[in-house]
Amino acid sequence: MTLFIDMEKLLILTGLLLSSVFARIEPHDSTVTFYGLAQYRLRIDYTRVADTAQNSLSASEYSNRIGFYWGTIFKPTPDILLQFQFGNDWFSTEAVSYSGNNPATVSDKGYPPFSVPYFHLAFAQWNPGVFRFAAGKIHLQSFGPLDLIERSLAGGTYSEAAFISWSVATNNSLMGISAGMQLLQNSFNLGIDLFSTVIEPRRQDIVNNDGLTDNNPSNPAVVMTLADIPVSAGNLSLTPQISLIFNRNYNASRDRSDHEISAGFTVSYQISNSLSAYLYAAYARLSNVNSRNPLDSSSFFGSGTAPVYDQRGFITGAGTTVPLGPGKLIFEAKYSNAYNLRDNGSLSHYIFGDLKYAWKPGQYVTIMPRFRMFTTIFPLSKSNLKFSSLLRPELILTGQI
What is the pLDDT, as a whole number, of residue 21? Predict the structure, then answer.
């Protein structure tokens, strides 16, 4: 109980401090915007898996999901912006269960607390005119390549990129620093946005046994750099995106690295105020050809050397939004594959379809029936499995301000 008393005091103190700060700011100098979302989903998962002998099994599961966030945008001056948003894993939502519902009643049983909130966004932005700079946990959108990069960072391959997108895994945010500028702005618009972050810091050892080391390999950090080049003319927009992860794999003994690269684009066309369509595609590559462990690494691998791989991934998708009755119909289809060039039987295929209808009976409420399909065609290396299919109908209830 002490934990919740302290949290209550902390919230009261935070509110008093914010009230004091806002009370000292002149209205004409600043703006404060609050926003939030609460979402509840009723979901059914129907899964079917078949093997190469034409046998199959199926299962169905019913679950509820919940997602929420609360945010504040504070502009003390016209060129300074601070944004903070916290909540749970709102994009993919979290499973509802009694054991995770209320820490005040279940903490004695050792259950995890309900939907522990964390910050999705926490950054400061300076926009003096032509240039703009931001640092912190900032909004970062995928235009194709980041869907592949996320899968690689999470599991080392590009598997299931069509299923688990960048937005699902990260809530469209990442810690780092960004800079951008508008190069042209009129009937033809051209800009550039750069982003950089550290994916993995690495230690450099220069002392060994109370003395200096004989050699000092650089052991460089894993750094990701991202470039977006948004272009638009009239109702047509195109955004190429390139992602480079330097020293993704590094071998200190050889002092050699393998870098990861992904490139792609998104093109969209706004046909009318409520009718639009888009298409995107991306390709990525990651290998350990230069950096795999040398033959004297038997202490780490029984065979003396790590398996060599050359992972490749491709993703493409298209979607449209169509006004229909009191709401709008939204459709998206995606395809991705993943394979290792050093393994002839490693090619996997992933097919995704998403159909939903959004209806707003009120200004702050949305009711959305949704149906998704996830199909996996397994690689030949999975000799006993042929394909799996997941059908996911759900009803989504959202309140948003």
Answer: 47
What is the tens place of the pLDDT at every residue in 81-94?
999 999 988 888 98
User: Which residue is listed with tokens 């019913």?
Assistant: 62
The helix or strand, by DSSP H or E, that contains position 59, with its residue range, turns out to be strand 56-77
* CB-based contacts of 241, cutoff 8 Å, min separation 6: 142, 143, 144, 145, 146, 226, 227, 228, 229, 263, 264, 265, 266, 282
Q: Which of 170-174, 208-212, 296-300, 345-349 has the lowest mean pLDDT?
A: 296-300
Burial of 159 (0-12, 13-18, 19+ CB in 10 A): buried
197 forms beta bridges with 224
Please tell me whether residue 117 adopts helix, strand or coil conformation: coil
Domains of the chain by range and CATH? 37-65+143-400 (2.40.160)
pTM of the model: 0.86
Which helix (H) or strand (E) segment is 154 a member of? helix 145-155
Whether residue 224 contacts residue 244, with contact meaning beta carbons closer than 8 Å, is answered with yes
* Contacts of 87 by beta carbon, 8 Å cutoff, 6+ apart: 37, 67, 68, 69, 70, 117, 118, 120
Do the beta carbons of residue 368 and residue 395 sit within 8 Å? yes
Q: Which residues contact 46 (CB under 8 A, 6 or more apart)?
A: 58, 59, 60, 390, 391, 392
Sequence-ordered list of residues with C-beta below 8 angstroms from that of 394, at least 6 positions apart, any chain: 41, 42, 43, 44, 65, 369, 370, 371, 372
∠ Cα 26 29 33 (to 5°)? 95
- Nearest alpha-carbon partner for 90 in 118, 110, 59, 69: 69
Token pair 């508008």 in the structure block, residue = 182
Task: Kindly report, residue by residue over 140-193, the tens digit of the pLDDT.
Answer: 999 999 999 999 999 999 999 999 999 999 999 999 999 999 999 889 999 999
